[in-house]
Amino acid sequence: YDKSNWMKCIPDDKPLSSVSIPGTHQSLKIEKKYKGFQAWEFQNQMHAGVRFVDMTLRRLSGKLYAENKPKPDMKFSQALSQIQFFLKHHESETVLLRLAGKSEEINHAKEKFNRVSDEVWKDKKIPRMGEVRRKIVLIQGPGFDWGLPVNAMVLGKDKKNKEFQMKANIKKASEYCTNEMMLTDTGSQGKGEKPQKVAEKLNNQLGDHLMSLYNENKIPSCLGIIAVDFPGTKLIELIINISCSSGSGSGQSEPGPFPGDTDGFSLHTDTFLVRQS
What we know:
The longest helix has 21 residues, at 195-215. The chain starts with 20 loop residues before the first strand and ends in a 33-residue tail after the last helix. It contains seven helices and ten strands. The protein is α/β, with parallel strands linked by helices. The model is unreliable at 247-255 and 260-270 (pLDDT under 50). This is Phosphatidylinositol-specific phospholipase C X domain-containing protein.
């Protein structure tokens, strides 16, 4: 499974806000036994098709790190280099990066971006796809004011309302994404929540919801960014195919079939979830 070049299907003149983008929440926090947010290493996420990543910065002994708990934190320069390496070898792609951190940490990150300014989109204006291929697109986050402002919608802690909120957020995103960057964040937010437990249920509900919209011919033209914990390949592929179904782009890459749209199989939890070992 390799979706390293899926953005070839997006026309150059399409606004980035109108592209449905799979993403990860707390992208570097990888761990077993219910404490992490992701199962795939950072590079593998990008090769699987993830195009929105989320990092929290911190300084330690005068150096800037991206939180990678409970593993030793990754140097921010190393995380940035991994994105740059990926984009250098996949010219059709872009990666959206949202940062959070304290003012001192953010200022140091800005210094690093200034050294590679040709490879980074720092403007607040929504670009067209052709303007940002091979570039990192900065997304504003807590304490970080460079790049594109985003309407970020998260889910509350009430387990009974998560599915309803997710569907409402997807609907709102589809209504505004032609002119505004929209983010539906389904990741675990509360300290008392176990991210994998939340993802086991919610990823399946999200996949079922998108498939039902497709089967009923109600798929909107765009969904914005959808960031999740523990995304499986089928969920990523589903979001990609929604993006690619609107037309061929620079690479004339044809969209694949929607998962399950020909044989009617019921969607199981592990269809949309990467399980930790």
